[in-house]
Design a protein that fits this description.
- It is a single chain.
- The chain is mainly alpha-helical.
- 54% of the residues lie in helices and 2% in strands.
- The relative contact order is 0.12.
């Protein structure tokens, strides 16, 4: 094997190794993630919808790619890239949470953990500071949350055609 071939091969598997670091989320903390989701997401969500939301968040974390280009928006010429998001930090935060007891004690544990991380407001998008605030940002900025808020199927981020647009959402 030539040295150049070896170096090209190692460079090619570098991104795969970075991907593999997050592939195990939520590791052994799935129960804690679900319990935390029940605390921070709307109580109106059915168990099935809560499960679907947590599964979508898990998939989003596993598939997150730091360094990916972000949409720069209309009128903004500066290109931005996605910041690092350490799934291992999320796992450690979940391990540190003690979500036992009644609903109020679980809520207090999540609030204390958020305060310890310095989170005081919901970020526009998940920013990696705390798993609870990122799960909330993931959900509350979604079409599903928008539909729940207005109690209508608006499909804010869904691609819809003009057919039927003159009618109110269901």
């Amino acid at each position: 094997m030539h040295r150049r071939t070896l170096l090209r091969w190692l460079a090619a598997i570098g991104p795969l190794r970075a991907w593999a670091q997050t592939a195990g989320f939520p590791a052994d903390q799935g129960e804690t993630l679900h319990a935390m989701a029940a605390v921070v997401l709307p109580s109106e969500l059915s168990a099935e919808h809560l499960e679907k939301t947590v599964a979508a968040f898990e998939r989003w974390v596993r598939e997150y790619r730091p360094g990916a280009e972000m949409d720069h928006g209309y009128g903004f010429t500066r290109l931005r890239t996605k910041p690092p998001l350490a799934a291992s930090t999320y796992i450690e935060q979940l391990r540190a949470l003690r979500l036992a007891g009644d609903a109020e004690s679980r809520r207090s544990a999540v609030e204390a953990s958020l305060a310890q991380s310095g989170v005081t407001a919901l970020p526009q998008t998940p920013d990696g500071r705390h798993v609870a605030s990122d799960l909330m940002a993931f959900y509350f900025r979604s079409s599903e949350a928008n539909d729940l808020c207005y109690r209508a199927h608006i499909g804010r981020y869904e691609c819809r055609g003009l057919a039927g647009s003159e009618r109110e959402p269901q």
